[in-house]
Every structure is written in structure tokens, then in C-alpha cells.
Amino acid sequence: MKRAPRKPTVIVHKTDTLDYKNLELLAKCIGPQGQILSRRRTGLTTKRQRELKQALKRARHLSLLPFVG
């Protein structure tokens, strides 16, 4: 039996900008311990997931987001 595909828990639309200043969107893509959620959970493509990672790193280094939950 095939398992039904999971629906992403956080939906990031194509028009949403993955920028370090968009804290509301970045906060949705972080788990309770502060880790970046997987592509399965965010529903992003590989390229957009890399952009998300870079934006989160920038926001953390500028102290806009915590490193740990």
C-alpha cells in the first residue's frame, strides 16, 4: 500500500520574499528548538530552501532571531 503524501505544515508562496528582514515568515520555518524545518515541512523547492537557510543565517548573525529556541 502506498502512503498518502504529506501536506506541508508551513506554506511559503512563490511571491513571499525570503529575506532576513521578513521575520514573521522566517519564524514560521523554525522548529521549537530553533532548527530549520525540512523541505517536506516547509513545502519549498531546493533552491528556495537554500535561500531560506541563507536568510536565517543572516537574521541570526544580526541578532534578529535567536540561534537556539
TrEMBL record:
GO MF: small ribosomal subunit rRNA binding; structural constituent of ribosome
Matching InterPro entries: Ribosomal_bS18, Ribosomal_bS18_sf
Keyword tags: Ribonucleoprotein, Ribosomal protein
Keyword Ribosomal protein: yes
Pfam families recorded: Ribosomal_S18
Keyword presence, Ribosomal protein: yes
Family classification: Belongs to the bacterial ribosomal protein bS18 family.
Protein's UniProt name: 30S ribosomal protein S18
